Amino acid sequence: MVGGGQLARMTHEAGIPLGIKFKLLSDTPQDSAAQVVSEVVVGDYRDLDTLRAFAHGCDVITFDHEHVPTEHLRALEADGIPVRPGPDALVHAQDKGVMRTKLTEIGAPCPRHRIVADPADVAAFAEETGGFPVVLKTVRGGYDGKGVWVVRSEADAADPFRAGVAVLAEEKVDFVRELAANIVRSPHGQAVAYPVVESIQVDGVCDTVIAPAPDLDERLAGEAQQLALRIASELGVVGHLAVELFETQDGRILVNELAMRPHNSGHWTQDGAITSQFANHVRAVLDLPLGDPRPRATWTVMSNVLGGDYPDMYQAYLHCMARDPQLKIHMYGKDVKPGRKVGHVNTYGDDLADVRERARHAADYLRGTITE
Questions:
Q1: Can you spell out the DSSP letters for 84-136?
Q2: What is the pLDDT of residue 335?
Q3: What does the DSSP 8-state code read for residue 272?
Q4: Neighbouring residues of 334: CB distance < 8 A, sequence distance ≥ 6
Q5: In the prediction, which pLDDT does 147 show?
Q6: Where are the strands (E) in the chain, listed by range?
Q7: Mean pLDDT within 298-325
Q8: What is the pLDDT of residue 340?
């Protein structure tokens, strides 16, 4: 697996029961997954020679991020190394311009959009789509709200162009909430779909995920799952695909982003689904039969633990575990920085209000923002 973050850490964990030998290409020995994987290569994923040396002897390569240069992945494939997802699929998660072009071509519903050249072009786009505000995104490199701007005038639109990469303009969608449809697809085309979830964002970062999305029309839920399955098939995705969606005021869904790896909106599946996203990603990239994605409980809520003013972690565990014996805590071993994802908690049960309160209390206590 290329990338040493928490997604690699949890994917490795899912492979342990199957006896899968796991090799990691990590930026540093301190990365989340590098702390727990036995075979770690420290190196730069942007260097082709490093990638080739790392891939030697591997049965398959997969990723915990989308940033490996597309041409490097094509070189690995030319060397006979299976890359899953392959570069022809992954480029749609790497480049938002390519993604929008392809999704439009296959008829997937998207916000109105186009590549813009400068602030004056942004103003022209705003006029075409009903006026400011407009969302601007760098086509490559953005994540967790980075590389995304909401601009309210031509004068506000200068910053995105300073990054030196193409800029995509999108209409600012009047949405009710954000949803995510998570599916997993194998090389021979078997695919499974998890329940559609509601994803609650705070300052551009995922804060809470509710599975399944409350009060979501059954027709719209099915439409979202079918859309995600169709996108995976059309793009040739192998492994986990998260399709982030807007639910609009008038009852439609629009595709916001794609991620071709385990995803924050699927962390609830570790404790709330029969087969987690991580276990199914492992099965998919190894072309094993996929596991049952159905939920184990009526409701599961995932809340991220963001970096803050930490109390003693052992004392925090004592409180949280004693207060809620059903609570599931997943910490990543990462240095604490304000706003950084350092872990998450999962709660489940039949009463949504209770499940949400338990998740929020635990996440806030582990962060150190509450003390009782």
A1: SS-HHHHHHHH-HHHHHHHHHHTT-----EEEE-SHHHHHHHHHHTTSS-EEE
A2: 85
A3: H
A4: 6, 32, 340, 341, 342
A5: 87
A6: 23-26, 39-42, 113-116, 134-138, 148-151, 167-171, 175-185, 191-193, 197-202, 205-211, 239-248, 253-259, 299-306, 328-331, 341-349
A7: 89
A8: 85
Axis crossing angle, helix 48-55 with helix 70-78, rounded to the nearest 10: 40
Overall residue count recorded for the chain in this entry = 372
Q: Are 119 and 161 in contact (CB under 8 A)?
A: yes
Residue 359 is predicted with a pLDDT of 98
pLDDT, tens digit, for every residue of 74-101? Answer: 999 999 999 999 999 999 999 999 999 9
Position 209, amino acid: V
Tokens for 9? Answer: 């850490």
pLDDT in tens, 126-177: 999 999 999 999 998 766 667 899 999 999 999 999 888 899 999 999 999 9
The predicted pLDDT at position 315 comes to 87
First CA to last CA distance, the chain: 40
* Per-residue DSSP letter, 264: G
CA distances from 293 to 59, 109, 136, 272, 361 (A): 26, 25, 35, 10, 27
β-sheet bridge partners, residue 341: 306
